[in-house]
Design a protein that fits this description.
Shape of chain B: globular
Radius of gyration of chain B: 17 Å
Oligomer: heterodimer
Distance between the termini of chain B: 30 Å
Radius of gyration of chain A: 27 Å
Number of helices of chain A: 27
Strand content of chain B: 25-35%
Distance between the termini of chain A: 25 Å
Strand order of the largest sheet of chain A: 6-5-17-16-15-7-8
Number of strands of chain A: 29
Strand content of chain A: 15-25%
C-alpha cells in the first residue's frame, strides 16, 4: 500500500509567526529554507491579513506558489521548553534553490523529534552508559567522568596513538564550523591524535588531494557558472539525485535556454549556442534522462564507460584537445608551472614519496606523459571513438565566432571512490586548466560534493600523509579507546564484514569486563575496563543523534543536537556560508557536539590532574563555552572576526561566498569564484599539470575480483533518502518506498537466476555478503548492477574489499560479486512500484 | 515543454475554476478582541460526494479529465482493467488521482504505456497502479488519491481524498 498520511488540512502560519533562517542540512547544495514557529493555541486564517503570506488562502494556489506547504513540512516541536507549531519550507528568495525543495530537505520538519506527533522518537535524549548488561540513561556528569577517566588512563599510560577517533569533517547537521572546531580543538590542539578517520573513509585525508596539490581548490566556481557554460560535464556524478536543486535550478535552466538572457547580459560579444551536457557514468541515470528532456537528446552525450577507466578517457580527451590546438597557451604561460619537473625513478608507478604519489609538472610534460589516442581509449573504456571525439569537441572546440568555449566540469564519487583517484582527479583538472576554464564565468572544475562543508580545525599536519588506515588498526587489535562522532562505519565503510566482526569482538570484551564488576565501585570499573583494553578490548564512546549499529557496541553513548536545534554555520558547494538558526530545542538533554567535546576536554583535565599529570592537564583548558556561539567565536571567528552571527543573520539564506573579502555596511563581501586573477593556491601562485598516464585497474585485489565474479556492483545514492539513513530509517514515507536497498538489475540477468521484481537477493563475494531488493531496470547493461549504498537493511560496504589508493582513499565503486535469490518478495515490499524511474511524457 | 491533451484540458478547467471556492472562506477564523464564544468545528474536512462519470463513459487505460472536490482541483479518472490498490467498481480497477504534482503543483501527464503520471516540471512520476506511489521524484507525499464509490447504476462518485492536494492547506476550500 502506498503510504498516505490521511492529512486533509494543515494549520495556517499566522501573520505574526516567528521567522528563522534555515538551510537544508543534508546535501552540499544547502538549499535555503525558512522556519516559522508559533504557539499551539494560535493559528492563522485564510484572509490575507491573517497569514504569513498575505494571500487569500481560501483560493486554490497555482504552481510554484510560496503559499503552500506539505504535511512533511509541518510538526509540533519544543521551543524554550514549550510546544510550538513549526513549518520549515523552501525559501523562494534564496538564490541557491529559488523555492525548490528536495524530497530530503522538504521533510526536515517531519524529521525533527516530536513528543506530540511522535516523529523521530529514535532520537537520543540522554547520555547512556553500558550498565547492568544494557544501556542505562544517566547524567552528563556521570558519562563525561567515565569517558574522561578511561581516556585519560589510556593516553597517559600508552600514549595518544592508543586513542582512535572517527569524526565528521563536514558542514550541515552533525558538523559545521562550531562542531568541527570543538572536536578539532580537542584532538588536534589539546592532543595530537594521529589515528583519526573521517565519517566516510578510513583515514584522515582529502578525497581530492590531486586538485589541491595542483593548486586548484576543489570548490572553485559559482553555481551561476552552470547557467553560463556552453558545455556542462558531469563526470562520475548523478546530479539530479545527489545535488538535486543545483541541477534543477542552474543546470536544467541552462539546458532549457532559460539562462540565455543572463548569458547575453553577463557575457556580451560572443556566441551563445544551445547548451550541451556530457555525462560520464557506467550507468544511465535519471540525470541523463532529465537532461535529454531539457536540452533534446542531440545535446546530451552519455559515455557509459567501463568502470574505473576514467583516466584513459580523460587523457584521450586532453590529448585530442591539445593536438587540435584548442588549448589556451596564453593562460598556460601566465598561470601554470613552465618548467618540467624531473620524473621520479619509478614513474609512473610511484611518486617521489609515499605521500606524493603523482607527478606534478608542466603542461608539456603532462601532454607527453598522458598521451592516449582516441582509439586506444575507446578500446579501454568500451565506448565508441566518435563519441570520445565528440566529447572533446563539445568541451573545447572554439565556438562559431572563434570564442573560447566555456566548459564546466563537475565530478564526484564516480571519480573519488574510483580507480586511481589521484591521477584521475588530476586528469580532469588538466582539461580545465589547458582550456582556461578555471576562474572564468561558465567554467570551473569542481567537486559536486556530498555534505556541505564547515571545516575549521587546528593544523592536522601531525596526522601525516599517507594518513593511518584506521580501520586496519581497529581490525588488527590496535588502539584502546575509540571516540566516534556522527559516524556509523557499520553501514558506510569498506570491508565492512571484517570490520564488524573485529569491532564486535573487541567491544564485547570490554562490555563483559564491565558486567563482571557490576557490584564494584567506579575505581573497580575503570580498572576492569583498562585491563580489558590492554588485553585487546576496545572502549568505545559514541556521539550521535540516534543509536546506530556501531553505537550499540559502544560503552558510552552521548546524545547530540542537530541543525535547527542549535545555531550552525556551514558553506555549500559554491562556498556560500549561512547561519542556520536555532528554532527549536534539542530533544531531552542532547547538546551540540562542540559542547560535548568541551565536556570531554574538561573531564580529561580533571582525570589527568587526579593522575598527577598537571602539565598534561593544562592542555585541556580553554573550553569554558556556554553555547555554540562561544565555540564559533573561539574557532572560525578568531580567524575571520568580521564574520559574526549578527551579520550572517542579516544576510539570510543567501549569506556570502567564502572567503570573505571585507565588510560593506551590513554586508560581508564574498568571492563568487576562485582564481579569477589567474593566481593559484601554490607557493608560486602557478597551477601544476598532472603527468599521470593510464595504469589499468590499480587498486589491490580489484582486477582479480573483476575477473572472478559475474556482476559489477556499482553503488551510490538515491534521491529519496539521505545517504546514511540516520533519520530516514525512521521515516514512514521513505521506508514505504525503499523497505530494502534496491539493486538495479538487467531483466534478463534476473530471469536467468529466477529473480523477479522485489525478490530479496544476496550479493556475495569473498569479502562478505549483503542483501538487497531486485529492481528490474531496462537500461542496466547485462552483468551490471547498481545497489543503494549505506542502507541499514543491506550494507553494500560488506562486499567491498579493503583495497585503497596510495593516500588511503577507499574504492567503493569498483566491486564485483555474484548474486543469488534469498526469498520471494517480503511482505513489506509487496505492492510497491517497480516501474522505470525515468520520466516519460 | 509540450503538454498533451489531458494536460491542456486540465489546465483549461483549472483556470476556469473558482465557482466553488467561496464556500471555504466562511470558515476562516476572524480575529477579535472582545470576549467571544468558542465555535464548534469539525475535526476533519467534510468531503462532498460528487458524481464524476458513469462506468459506461470509461474505456480501459483511457484517462478522463475530472475535478474533485471542486472545480479548482483537477484530477484524472482511470479504468485500468485489473484490480489495483484503492480500485473501485465491480472489477476493483477504477481509480482517480489529483493531477497537481504534490512537489510544485505542475500538471501531471498520464503515460498510458506504463500507467504512470509524470511531471514535466521536475521529472517526478507516480504509479497509477500502486496507489499513486511516487516511483521517483521530489514530492514528499504520494499522489493524493480520490476515494471512489460506484453505485448500482454505474455512477462513479468521489467521496474523499487521502493526502493534501497541492496548492491548498485544506482539501476543501
Amino acid at each position: 500500500m502506498a503510504y498516505k498520511r490521511q492529512i486533509d488540512r494543515l494549520p495556517i502560519i499566522p501573520a505574526d509567526a516567528k521567522e528563522h533562517n534555515a538551510v537544508c542540512h543534508y546535501c552540499i547544495v544547502g538549499c535555503g529554507y525558512k522556519a516559522y514557529t508559533w504557539p499551539m493555541n494560535k493559528q492563522g486564517g485564510t484572509a490575507p491579513n491573517q497569514n504569513k503570506f498575505g494571500t487569500d488562502l481560501s483560493e486554490q494556489q497555482f504552481q510554484d506558489t510560496e503559499a503552500w506547504y506539505s504535511p512533511s513540512m509541518y510538526n509540533i516541536v519544543k521551543q524554550d521548553g514549550k510546544d510550538v507549531q513549526l513549518v520549515v519550507k523552501p525559501d523562494v528568495n534564496c538564490v541557491v534553490n529559488s523555492g525548490l525543495g528536495s524530497v530530503r530537505g522538504a521533510r526536515m520538519a517531519e524529521n525533527h523529534p516530536s513528543t506530540v506527533t511522535g516523529t523521530q522518537q529514535q532520537r537520543l535524549t540522554d547520555p547512556l552508559v553500558w550498565r547492568y548488561g544494557s544501556y542505562q540513561p544517566t547524567s552528563w556528569e556521570d558519562a563525561f567522568d567515565l569517558v574522561g577517566q578511561v581516556t585519560a588512563r589510556i593516553v597517559a599510560d600508552e600514549g595518544e596513538d592508543e586513542l582512535l577517533v572517527s569524526m565528521f569533517d563536514h558542514g550541515g547537521s552533525g558538523g559545521g564550523y562550531e562542531n568541527t572546531w570543538g572536536t578539532g580543538k580537542l584532538y588536534f590542539e589539546s592532543m595530537k591524535v594521529k589515528n583519526v578517520r573521517i565519517h566516510n573513509r578510513p583515514a584522515y585525508n582529502s578525497e581530492v588531494h590531486a586538485t589541491r596539490d595542483m593548486g586548484v581548490g576543489e570548490l572553485n566556481n559559482a553555481y551561476e557558472d552552470a547557467e553560463l557554460a556552453d558545455t556542462l560535464v558531469a563526470w562520475g556524478c548523478n546530479p539530479l539525485e545527489c545535488q538535486t536543486n543545483y541541477f534543477l535550478n542552474h543546470w536544467i535552466s541552462n539546458l532549457q535556454g532559460v539562462s540565455s538572457t543572463k548569458k547575453q547580459d553577463m557575457l556580451p560579444g560572443e556566441a551563445h549556442p544551445q547548451a550541451r551536457v556530457i555525462f560520464v557514468d557506467p550507468r544511465r541515470t535519471v540525470s541523463v534522462n532529465a537532461a535529454e528532456q531539457a536540452a533534446g537528446a542531440d545535446n546530451v552525450l552519455h559515455l557509459p564507460i567501463n568502470s574505473g577507466t576514467d583516466l584513459a578517457l580523460a587523457n584521450a580527451i586532453f590529448t585530442y584537445i591539445v593536438d587540435q590546438g584548442w588549448h589556451s597557451m596564453d593562460f598556460i604561460e601566465a598561470s601554470t608551472l613552465r618548467e618540467a619537473q624531473d620524473r621520479p625513478p619509478l614513474f609512473p608507478a610511484r611518486g617521489v614519496a609515499d605521500g606524493q604519489p603523482g607527478h606534478l609538472s608542466s603542461f608539456e610534460d603532462a601532454v607527453d606523459a598522458n598521451r592516449m589516442s582516441i582509439e586506444e581509449a575507446a578500446d579501454i573504456c568500451g565506448v565508441p571513438a566518435e563519441d570520445i571525439r565528440k566529447a572533446a569537441e563539445w568541451i573545447a572546440q572554439p565556438k562559431e565566432d572563434g570564442a573560447r568555449k566555456r566548459t564546466m566540469i563537475g565530478y564526484e564519487k564516480g571519480i573519488i571512490w574510483g580507480n586511481d583517484n589521484y591521477r584521475t582527479n588530476g586528469a580532469l583538472v588538466n582539461i580545465a586548466l589547458a582550456t582556461h576554464n578555471i576562474g572564468q564565468p561558465g567554467g570551473g572544475c569542481v567537486r559536486m560534493g556530498g555534505h556541505q562543508e564547515g571545516y575549521f580545525r587546528p593544523p592536522e599536519g601531525h596526522v601525516g600523509r599517507p594518513a593511518a588506515y584506521v580501520d586496519q588498526l581497529l581490525i588488527g587489535g590496535k588502539g584502546g579507546v575509540h571516540h566516534i562522532w556522527a559516524c556509523n562505519h557499520y553501514r558506510t565503510t569498506l570491508n565492512a564484514t571484517e570490520y564488524k566482526r573485529a569491532y564486535n569482538r573487541r567491544t564485547n570484551m570490554v562490555k563483559e569486563a564491565m558486567d563482571a564488576v557490576a557490584g564494584g565501585d567506579r575505581e573497580a570499573l575503570i580498572e576492569a575496563i583498562v585491563v580489558a583494553v590492554k588485553q585487546g578490548g576496545l572502549f568505545a564512546v559514541n556521539m550521535d543523534i540516534v543509536q546506530n549499529e556501531m553505537g550499540k557496541q559502544a560503552h558510552v553513548v552521548l546524545p547530540a543536537a542537530q541543525q535547527g536545534e542549535m545555531n550552525l554555520t556551514s558553506m555549500n558547494g559554491e562556498r556560500r556560508m549561512r547561519l542556520a538558526e536555532k528554532y527549536m530545542d534539542p530533544p531531552g538533554n542532547a547538546k551540540p557536539d562542540c559542547l560535548i567535546a568541551a565536556g570531554i576536554a574538561q573531564a580529561m583535565e580533571r582525570a589527568l590532574r587526579d593522575l598527577g599529570l598537571d602539565t598534561y592537564a593544562e592542555q585541556f583548558k580553554g573550553y569554558d563555552w556556554q553555547t555554540e556561539a562561544d565555540a564559533f567565536a573561539d574557532g572560525y571567528g578568531s580567524a575571520n572576526p568580521e564574520v559574526t552571527y549578527d551579520r550572517l543573520r542579516k544576510l539570510g539564506t543567501n549569506g556570502f561566498q567564502e572567503p570573505p573579502q571585507g565588510v560593506e555596511g551590513d554586508t560581508i563581501v564574498g568571492t563568487p569564484r576562485l582564481y579569477a586573477d589567474g593566481v593559484f593556491s601554490s607557493d608560486d601562485g602557478r597551477a601544476r599539470f598532472m603527468a599521470g598516464p593510464w595504469r589499468g585497474q590499480v587498486t589491490p585485489g580489484k582486477a582479480v575480483e573483476m575477473d572472478r565474479y559475474p556482476f559489477f556492483i556499482n553503488n551510490g545514492r538515491s534521491n529519496l533518502n539521505w545517504q546514511n539513513w540516520f533519520l530516514d530509517q525512521d521515516n514512514d514515507f521513505v521506508l514505504d518506498r525503499w523497505p530494502y536497498p534496491f539493486i538495479e538489475m538487467n531483466p534478463e540477468d534476473m530471469a536467468e537466476r529466477g529473480i523477479t521484481a522485489g525478490d530479496l537477493v544476496e550479493v556475495f563475494n569473498s569479502n562478505g555478503a549483503a542483501q538487497a531488493m531486485a529492481y528490474p531496470t531496462d537500461t542496466a547493461k547485462r552483468g551490471q548492477t547498481f545497489m543503494l549504498f549505506g542502507s541499514p537493511r543491506g550494507t553494500q560496504g560488506n562486499v567491498v574489499n579493503e583495497g585503497v589508493n596510495e593516500l588511503v582513499i577507499p574504492v567503493y565503486k569498483q566491486t564485483w560479486a555474484d548474486i543469488r535469490k534469498i526469498s520471494d518478495t517480503p511482505m513489506v515490499a509487496q505492492g510497491i512500484s517497480f516501474k522505470s524511474k525515468e520520466f516519460k511524457l | 515543454m509540450k503538454c498533451n491533451k489531458l494536460v491542456d484540458a486540465g489546465r483549461r478547467q483549472f483556470l476556469r475554476g473558482g465557482l466553488m471556492a467561496s464556500a471555504g472562506a466562511a470558515a476562516a477564523t476572524v480575529a477579535g478582541t472582545s470576549e467571544a464564544e468558542a465555535k464548534p468545528a469539525l475535526a476533519r474536512v467534510d468531503y462532498p460526494a460528487n458524481r464524476l462519470a458513469n462506468m459506461a463513459d470509461l474505456a480501459v487505460n483511457e484517462p478522463m479529465d475530472v475535478a474533485y472536490p471542486d472545480a479548482d482541483s483537477p484530477g484524472v479518472l482511470l479504468k485500468l482493467g485489473e484490480a489495483v490498490e484503492g480500485g473501485a467498481g465491480p472489477d476493483g480497477d477504477i481509480v482517480a488521482f489529483s493531477v497537481l504534482c504534490p512537489h510544485k503543483g505542475w500538471f501531471l501527464n498520464y503515460n498510458a504505456d506504463d500507467r504512470t503520471l509524470n511531471c514535466p516540471g521536475h521529472y517526478s512520476r507516480f504509479d497509477a497502479e500502486a496507489g499513486g506511489q511516487q516511483v521517483w521524484g521530489h514530492a514528499t507525499h504520494n499522489l493524493p488519491q480520490f476515494v471512489l464509490r460506484v453505485d448500482d447504476s454505474g455512477d462513479i462518485y468521489a467521496e474523499g481524498v487521502d493526502e493534501l492536494i497541492y496548492g491548498r492547506l485544506s482539501n476543501t476550500l
